[in-house]
Specification:
globular, Jelly Rolls, mainly beta, single chain, about 180 residues, 6-stranded antiparallel sheet
Length: about 180
């Protein structure tokens, strides 16, 4: 898990899913599919500071470090692709996901979309798969979300892989600070 600031100064967590589909269905990734992403859009209803997000771990190779390739887009401005290695010991075993810290946190005005795009690989393996979260359409009822109606979750055309939408996917949490 990449370390996020903690305690009273730590970010707030916004959860998307009510259920993890394990072991029935997982999202598959092929190593030679460059530029193909699963993606989802979070639209804040008030100004925030975007501090990071989580991805579900790679299930097909639990004992190996996996590489997350990601980009984020704030409004129409897209970051370059960033690669982060996440080792088995860095995965939250309860939530079964790894965290990505955006430091410094990025100020985002109310109504400006935050789009997160992800893909995965494990070493030289041709294939890997991640867990899949369900119940994304029910995020307003997740009791852990301190500000349940802070975000509107939307599908995005940046989801070129097509296996993530408002109902399911592998981006279970977003981290933010109040602006």
């Amino acid at each position: 898990m990449l370390m996020l600031p903690g305690g009273d100064d730590g970010p707030k967590i916004f959860k998307r899913f009510t259920t993890i589909d394990d072991p029935c269905r997982q999202l598959s990734y092929i190593s030679d599919e460059e530029g193909v992403y699963d993606a989802i859009m979070f639209v804040p209803k008030k100004a925030i500071k975007f501090a990071g997000f989580s991805v579900y771990r790679v299930e097909s190779h639990l004992d190996q470090t996996f590489t997350l390739m990601y980009k984020y887009k704030i409004g129409s401005e897209t970051s370059p692709e960033i690669e982060v290695d996440i080792a088995p010991g860095e995965v939250d075993e309860v939530e079964r996901c790894g965290d990505v810290n955006i430091d410094p946190a990025i100020s985002v005005a109310a109504g400006i979309p935050i789009t997160i795009m992800v893909s995965f690989k494990v070493g030289e393996e041709f294939f890997c798969s991640t867990l899949l979260g369900y119940g994304g359409e029910n995020y307003l009822s997740i009791p852990e979300n301190e500000e349940r109606d802070l975000f509107e979750i939307r599908d995005t055309p940046d989801c070129t892989k097509g296996e993530t939408d408002t109902r399911f996917g592998n981006i279970p949490r977003l981290f933010y600070f109040n602006a």
